[in-house]
Amino acid sequence: MRLDPNRRILILTATLLAAAGPAMAGGAFGLGARPRDFADISYATWTDDEPGYRLYPGDQIEVATPTAPELTRVLTVGPDGRISLPLIGSVMAADRALPELEMVLSQAYATQLVRPDVEVTLKQAAPMKVLVGGEVNTPGWVEMSGDLDSLQAVMAAGGPKGSAKLGQVVIIRRGPGGHLMRRTVDLSRGLRQPGRSDLVPLRRFDIVYVPRSGLAEADVYMGQIRDLLPFSFSYAPPVR
Length: 240
Description:
By secondary structure, the protein is of the alpha+beta class. It contains six helices and ten strands. β8 and β9 form a beta hairpin.
């Protein structure tokens, strides 16, 4: 029986990744991740700049062809990240900016249309959510109904376990060019003194990891879930 990605993430975070040391070192569940495999991950410098929007599964878009209006379609990006269009068939849309997708579709239509102009518009974004893992009671996806900070996300995931190291919570974000950025925050003061800790407002598909033993554990976690995320990323920092 195949598990859907969300269910797999819940199982991984609840059983494998919330357990320190031996379970992860042994590459449980056949994922083969060992601490030494991810000990030297290079993260890009953290920035709060808002990156350009990229499409994700569940986003609804309009693909308009002004010179051939009969081909215009309103589509939802599928779970596999693809959309299907007349004449050109299946095209990968997920993880692409709107101008990038316009260029790809224009090139595809160039063999079919004299003027292959394509305009892509985001009609409705898929529900926004973040992934919370590690030493929380109900790890998994947390919906963002509005503004959400890192402490609120941890509480929405059932709150921290007694073994949680709240002074070293890791936030991982996909930055410019798909490069990973990592920031460590202290949420312990936020429980004792609301408004006094470094809460960090979250963005769509941020990853909040509550460790038991520290940063190395967070690197192992990223290695375990990298193929389950709805986007690709690079471990190497951007060239400056």
